[in-house]
Amino acid sequence: MKILSFLLAFAFSLNLAAQNDIVGKWKTIDDESGKPRSVVEIYKKDNLYYGKITDMFLEPHEDPDPVCDECDEEDERYMKKVRGMEILKALRRDGDEYVDGKILDPENGKVYTCKLWLENGNLKLRGYVAIFYRTQTWLKYE
Fold first, then answer.
1. What does the alpha-carbon distance between residue 102 and residue 119 come to, in Å, rounded to a whole number?
2. Domains in the chain: how many in total?
3. Which residue, 60, 64, 72, 123, is most buried by CB atoms nearer than 10 A?
4. Residue 102: other Cβ atoms inside 10 A
5. Is 67 left (phi over 0), alpha (psi -120 to 50) or beta?
6. Which domain CATH number covers 58?
């Protein structure tokens, strides 16, 4: 009986860990228009979390294959294609949050310190510049 109880508790803890993991695809939402902008795939590498743009929701007037021409010329991503670009770097898990990472906004080329956390099945991303911050909600992408 003790073994069965242990196995059930272990299986339950694995399920909770999977639910609290940010790994997967997330749909980003534009702050101003409220429309989807891209799909970011978050993955784990060497105990850190990274994210790359795998798809984009572009308007008919937008470049169908944009490059990061606003990125700093010293950044390795300068003039590289946005689709496939790693925009989230080196987040580490700290309890229920993923902290100390960097995120690139390819539309303006700026890099921000960031943290992520899950809230009600959605991913919250907060980008910082000094003491100022902005929080976005990303939706699970099926």
1. 20
2. 1
3. 123
4. 14
5. beta
6. 2.40.128.520
